[in-house]
Design goal:
The chain is α/β, with parallel strands linked by helices. The chain has three domains: 163 residues, Rossmann fold (3-Layer(aba) Sandwich), CATH 3.40.50; 250 residues, N-(1-d-carboxylethyl)-l-norvaline Dehydrogenase, domain 2; 46 residues, 6-Phosphogluconate Dehydrogenase, domain 3 (Single alpha-helices involved in coiled-coils or other helix-helix interfaces), CATH 1.20.5.320. Helix content is 54%, strand content 8%. The protein contains 19 helices and ten strands. The chain has a four-stranded mixed sheet, sandwiched between helices. A two-stranded parallel sheet has the order 1-2. A two-stranded antiparallel ribbon has the order 7-8. Strand 4, helix 5 and strand 5 form a beta-alpha-beta unit. Helix 8 packs across helix 11, helix 11 packs across helix 12 and helix 14 packs across helix 18. The longest helix is centred in the last third of the chain and has 34 residues. The protein is globular and about 75 Å long.
């Protein structure tokens, strides 16, 4: 293990718990000493000397890096690879951009060193006691280390939450989309909080009870569980609820943005995820928002309905929006798999996300069933089970959006989810006007409903209808 921060140290301890002999390297002597102290009787060796670290490994070596994405990864590769031999394996366990992984794999392959990317999800606790692992790259190299990965991964019904996903950057790509879905889900939950806190004037203890209740039913998921726990946390210094002391500006490290960028590159709609990324950007404009709150005052009536009934509607709306958010991510994975040759099995992806990872949820079992029944399912909203669940709750989704508009409380992710649902189920969209506009100002052409072919109209001149012989051919109206 190169990098003995929280994640690296905990993964090594996890491996040690399962009887594996492992070595750790870090330039920070404090981190090395900390690992030595925690290692106890486990077969764990730690050092600040790179050469000593390499010599401690049996050939063919397997080296896992857990360092920040970008330049730090390249720096470690630059330092480590001269000490490696043909057939050794170097694994990047960080959140690297998938195209960087492709380039690194190609470069190291020329030196006959195996390289692959592996997504690791679960945070500090997951790394220590069972993460979800998403490896991709050289399958022969993976087969050498899969016993370790299966041993340390989270288990659901005895099944390890790890599987070989595909060649090249498949593992890192899946992790990026995992994080993109996470962006969407966390934004949806933030909006439920805003509606209940500002809209219904519910207290933190009341919010804890609601989220805890939700986590026991169909909304069962890690994110709903921790949301419930957040609302009972009290700051020891001030005696106030911790949630009320946290500044309302959300940060991001890039994986959500990469998801949105990849979706646009592959022409896949991911409305909810895109909105979640945008909303983090908007949240960072704290000073501007503060000033605008004084300038752009809008009067709105307070909530006057049945609070209990509204909370139930909100629960249903959240479940529908969660399905829609997962749908967007999985559809993007399907398209990327075909485009990049990953050959992803989405039933397997659903399976390894059921435990250990941040987006683990009971809903994933139904998603797994959907892909088990139809492996090349184009969209989860066409699955008979999931489609019925969304249809049964779409009225509640509309209702909470109407209420949010009346209250002046933004619910951008809920709105984006509903727009995706309504757009996907629309046999006709107004894109014919968009095409007409594009053809008008840029001669970008269009297709017709009554004839095959590609057409262009001179919109600023009288149209001349071509004779029937030209039907189906490129048409220029003069």
């Amino acid at each position: 293990m190169v990098g003995l921060g929280v994640m690296g140290r905990n993964l090594l301890l996890n491996m040690g718990d399962h009887g594996f002999s492992v070595a750790g390297f870090d330039l920070d002597s404090t981190k090395v000493e900390s690992l030595r102290q925690e290692a106890g009787n486990r077969k764990i060796f730690a050092t600040t000397a790179l050469k000593e670290f390499i010599l401690a490994l049996k050939s063919p070596r397997a080296v896992l890096m857990l360092v920040p994405a970008g330049a730090p990864v390249d720096a470690v590769i630059r330092d480590v690879h001269p000490h490696l031999s043909e057939g050794d394996l170097l694994i990047d366990g960080g959140n690297s951009f998938f195209k960087d992984t492709n380039l690194r794999e190609k470069t190291l392959a020329e030196k006959k060193i195996h390289f692959f990317g592996m997504g690791v999800s679960g945070g500090e606790s997951g790394a220590r006691y069972g993460p979800s692992l998403m490896p991709g790259g050289d399958k022969t190299a993976y087969n050498r280390i899969h016993p370790i990965l299966e041993a340390i991964a989270a288990k659901v019904n005895g099944e390890p939450c790890v599987a070989y996903l595909g060649p090249t950057s498949a593992g890192h790509y899946v992790k990026i989309i995992h994080n993109g879905i996470e962006y969407g889900l966390t934004q949806l939950l933030a909006e439920t909080y805003d509606l209940m806190h500002r809209g219904l004037d519910l207290t933190n203890p009341e919010l804890h009870d609601i989220y805890h209740d939700w986590s026991q039913g169909e909304l069962n998921s890690y994110l709903v569980e921790i949301t419930a726990n957040i609302f009972k946390q009290v700051d020891s210094e001030t005696g106030k609820h911790m949630i009320d002391l946290i500044l309302d500006t959300a940060k991001q490290k890039g994986t959500g943005m990469w998801t949105a960028e990849s979706a646009m590159e592959l022409h896949v709609p991911t409305n909810t995820i895109d909105t979640a990324v945008t909303w983090r950007n908007l949240s960072s404009l704290k000073d501007e928002r503060q000033a605008a709150s004084e300038l752009l005052k809008v009067s709105s009536a307070p909530f006057s309905g049945d609070k209990k009934a509204f909370v139930n509607q909100l629960k249903n709306a959240l479940y529908a929006a969660m399905i829609i958010t997962f749908t967007q991510g999985m559809t993007l994975l399907r398209t990327a798999s075909k485009t990049y040759g990953y050959d992803l099995n989405l039933e397997v992806v659903s399976r390894i996300w059921r435990g250990g990872c941040i987006i683990r949820a009971g809903l994933l079992e139904k998603m797994r069933d959907a892909y088990r029944k139809q492996s090349d399912l184009s969209n989860l909203l066409t699955d008979p089970v999931l489609s019925k669940e969304v249809l049964a709750r779409q009225a509640d989704l509309r209702a909470i959006i109407r209420t949010s508009v009346d209250l002046g409380i933004p619910t951008a992710a809920f709105m984006a989810s509903l727009a995706y649902f309504d757009g996907y189920r629309s046999a006709r969209l107004p894109s014919n006007l968009t095409q007409a506009q594009r053809d008008y100002f840029g001669a970008h052409t269009y297709e017709r409903t009554d004839a095959k072919g590609v057409f262009h109209t001179r919109w600023d001149a009288p149209e001349v209808v071509p004779p029937p012989a030209l039907a189906g051919k490129e048409r220029q109206t003069l």
